[in-house]
Amino acid sequence: MPYLLPLNFHEFSFTDKLLDGLDAMGFEKATPIQEQAIPLVLEGRDLIACAQTGTGKTAAYLLPILSKLTQTEGDKVRALIIAPTRELVQQIDQQVEGFAYFLGVSSIPVFGGGDGSAYEQQRRAFDTGADLVIATPGRLISHLISGTVDMSALEFLVLDEADRMLDMGFYEDIERIIQKLPTTRQTLLFSATMPPRIRDLAAKILKDPAQISLAISKPAANIVQQSYLAYDTQKTPLLQKILSSSDFQSALIFTSTKDKAKSLEKEMIRSGFEARAIHSDLDQKQREEVMLAFRNRQLKFLIGTDIVSRGIDVDGIELVVNYDVPPDPEDYIHRIGRTARAERNGIAITFISDKDGFKFKKIEELIEKEIPKFQVPASLGESPVLSTRPVGGGGRGGKGGGFKGKPKRRN
Ligand code: AMP
């Protein structure tokens, strides 16, 4: 296939006001998912799109919807976007604000948490009317049940990160929401992966959908991927060495659990690093403060777990560290997709402990690439030796498999 130059946004039939919004946001050329999705959505097709974050998928559905919303007027909700986490809802809402700056299209972000006044504010916003609602499933259901929101004029439904919503147990909530929506509507489903459950959901809610699949499950080529073989006890000093080795302005560190995120935060602060952890024990205001500080570059190092950190849309993250190997290979792709967004370069480093050799091999199989593996610096002792047997799966003694050997201090 010949290489085609990316389309300039002016080549879509967007209104001048929308193009002004795009200019203001610094968007010039469409990304591949945008090039494929925008014409189909403008045509009115239902769509099932396999695309991971970092590909520009948000704009791929927002732009054609915004362009269509401006063509008629009304004070009822006309587009509904459902996304798994409040962070993602807020990021989508911010993109809407940017694109729609000159359009006069209104939007409401709807998510749970926060103090009791948040629900009240959302309820009042529904009374005033909004063209577009961006919501997490749980909170949206509360509003639908209490009758505060009228969906009778809905024209567009988007499910964003559908696979993650199902992973988080929102399947039934989504079904309940959809039962309350008009059946004549355009539905778009975006998902990073297409497991059978997503295909089933798509078959139920989409009509004759067009399908787009972008080279799924492959991290962007502009991410340099590396790994270190490190025992758990070596991970924090290793992280500190890495962060001190270069003048990183923005790094995201993933741990496997909330407790690890919290204890790593303490250790990092104690050692003089500007680090904060984001996790579900923080109230919403605290989470927003941490995210804002990270986004504004007041905070250099953010520590988090998959659920909270997913979809974090912060430009210019230079480094992603997987302090623990993600349990699900797909999560590896999501995590490292936080760096190198929109054509920039980024680095992703994974710490592989003595128990994680097998999990890491699964990741390499998924991305069809071997990731360079390094030993920890000599001052931290010896690295474990890589073994890719499943943990407890018939390895020596069936326990603690993955690596052989014990950590030894080198002098
Ligand atoms: P997404 O995959 O929607 O999370 O988008 C990833 C990042 O790329 C976001 O920061 C977007 O603002 C940015 N982005 C998306 N499309 C474009 C584009 N066509 N030009 C420049 N930046 C873009």
Explained architecture:
By secondary structure, the chain is of the alpha/beta class. The chain has two domains: 9-213, P-loop containing nucleotide triphosphate hydrolases (Rossmann fold), CATH 3.40.50.300; 223-393, Rossmann fold (3-Layer(aba) Sandwich). It contains 15 helices and 16 strands. It has helices at residues 16-25, 32-43, 57-69, 86-99, 116-128, 137-146, 162-167, 171-179, 196-205, 232-245, 258-270, 284-295, 306-309, 329-336, 357-367, and strands at 47-50, 79-82, 107-110, 132-135, 156-159, 186-191, 210-213, 223-229, 251-254, 275-278, 301-304, 319-322, 346-352, 373-375, 385-386, 403-404. The protein has a seven-stranded parallel β-sheet, with helices on both faces. A seven-stranded parallel β-sheet has the order 10-11-9-12-13-8-14, with helices on both faces. Strands 15-16 form a two-stranded antiparallel ribbon. Strand 10 (275-278), helix 12 (284-295) and strand 11 form a beta-alpha-beta unit. The radius of gyration is 22 Å and the shape is globular. It starts with 15 loop residues before the first helix and ends in a 7-residue tail after the last strand. Residues 393-411 have low confidence and may be disordered. The chain binds adenosine monophosphate. Adenosine monophosphate binds at residues 27, 29-31, 34, 53-59, 313, 315, 341-342.
